[in-house]
Amino acid sequence: MLPVTQTEFDDAVRVEALTRRFAGITAVDGLRFRVGTAEIFGLVGPDGAGKTTTLRMLAGVLPPDSGSASVAGCDVVREAELLKTRISYMPQRFGLYEDLTVDENIRFYADLFETGRKAREERAARLLAASGMSEFRQRLAGQLSGGMKQKLGLTCALIHTPRVLLLDEPTTGVDPVSRRDFWRILYWLVDEGVTVVISTSYLDEAERCHRLALLRSGHLLLCDTPANLKRRMRGEVVVATSSQPREVRDALAGAPGVLGSLLVGVAVHLNVDAAARIPELQRALVAAGVPCDSMLRVEPTMEDLFVSAVREAEGAGA
Length: 318
Fold this sequence. Notes:
Elements: E1 11-22, E2 25-36, E3 40-44, H1 51-58, E4 66-71, E5 74-75, H2 80-86, E6 87-90, H3 102-112, H4 117-130, H5 146-158, E7 164-168, H6 176-191, E8 195-200, H7 203-206, E9 211-216, E10 219-224, H8 226-231, E11 236-241, H9 245-252, E12 258-264, E13 267-272, H10 278-288, E14 294-298, H11 302-315
Parallel strand pairs: 3-8, 3-9, 6-7, 7-8
Antiparallel strand pairs: 1-2, 1-4, 4-5, 9-10, 11-13, 11-14, 12-13
Helix pairs in contact: 3-5, 4-5, 5-6
């Protein structure tokens, strides 16, 4: 992950008490956060967390019911037209024209943003090279793989060199190689001074962001760097591996010192008040007749952190 180089935030995005409701349901509830220039900021959470609604408001395509937001120095409501010239918004389904070639799609979006031919050709060449797409310039967009379509969409979104890039779950369903290429481009953009706000439900991908906003049901649970968020997590994480992981989870539910648990394949991640509980937990499994191959303390993952944050929010009545 790239370091944030600025000594203090020159805010590219400011969100204050941003709220949006649909038919009596509050999709986004009083969000507050700031994003610094040349920062990758992640909106992280499951479906229904409010990620897409937040990005649509930041892009100026959906007005908030209350609160305010400024992006690239523009109020998203009062200066929506000026905002469009300073940002790029790539929704989950980006509007590529499948009967046009890669080059023709790029040219179309460059013309929309009045990007000159020389600038378009130079930038397209760099973006396509970075994404491994150079040899596919004459291929119809409809004949590209899902990952290649996403990389073409990103190229089109970046052809006019925006100040802020808004990405709504751009790597969903994308193959690992294309995901790697996608993030390589994002790191390159940060080096150029572009600010990136990206939503994702992939918690492993969240590790690549400079800072994260963990969202649940429209509420902001936590906002900080991945490392700081993990340090704030209550207790420690112990991983128990077993041929019967569900039985391990059930046998230790409610055991002294066990704050929560998470099934991960053939393992159970146990959030405990202290790793010194391991011998006690092992004895509990023996008494219950549940096999356990190993039980070790590990560093928490983003999944562990998110589950812990949700549990604490529920305990607080959020």
